[in-house]
Specification:
Distance between the termini: 66 Å
Order of helices and strands: HEEHEEEEEEHEHHHHH
Helix content: 40-55%
Oligomer: single chain
Shape: flat
Length: about 325
Amino acid sequence: MKIFVNCFLVIFVLFISGCSSKRLTIKALYPSKIENEKIHTIRVERFYRDDVNQTVSIANKIANNVIDNKRIFELRDSDFGTDAVLSGEVLNSSLDTQVYYRTEVDYSRCRFYRYDERNRSRECIEYHIRQIPCEKREYNVTTNIRLSKPITNNVIFSKTYDKSSFDDMCFDHHSYYPSYPNSRDKFRVNTQIADDIANNILDDISPHYVYYDIEIIEELDEDKLVFSKGQEKRFEKIVELIETKNLDLAKMELEILDKEFNQKSFAVIYNLALIHEAYNNLQIANELYNEAKMLTLNAKYLDLANFGINRTSRNLEEKIKAKSQLP
């Protein structure tokens, strides 16, 4: 029975792996949420009630924020020549615990035996039940920030960030002390949450990259295209090249196939569009997605093409805004 279950699991995993589509991760440059302002020099004030290193984490991220090999911000110690002042408050840093007990049969300890006089042996008929203490923990950090002009004190941007982390653990093998996690874990976990919040703050006040996992078309469109076994094998190799991010070679091979198919293959043109999108050639990618859309009636392929058209149109607009914010 155990062998059967193991075999089933292996087959199931292979089936899922085989059905999962290949994808290419691309990135798109997005602007900050601060409109009509160019912020390049910032002074960071110590956050009020900061017991989770929130000030240090955001200051470090601002100081080391680099896009396309260009440093976006310069940290200042005074207001002279400073574009904005970042201040804030840690509104909450907490750890809430809920204690519960999990029952478990302790087969090493017998409560009641049945004695067999004939064989002079005994058999356990009831074992001890262990009550194992467990805790559900919720760690939370809430931070409010305020970005303002240094002289007028006019607020440019403000937002409250709230993040939580959850843990569920049982104390099977050592003693349980209710106060134990408060001293050990709260600072460690909440400091990490504060660092995650700093990433969100940076994304809001700075141009940044957004990442997408886009599906690669893995098969030639056999319902509308006549192709040889050799062309099919070449296309499969191209898909592998795209997946492993050998995009220059994949692009060259796709362009050769595109000529051979007289620009009639949805799969070829869609994957070409995907490569151009990965290169950040968004206008070319948008045009290719539109070409691909005209070559198929497949509902799934139409959705992929439409997503590509909408995505590249939106990302082109966001890229223009972001570029205007760069130093």
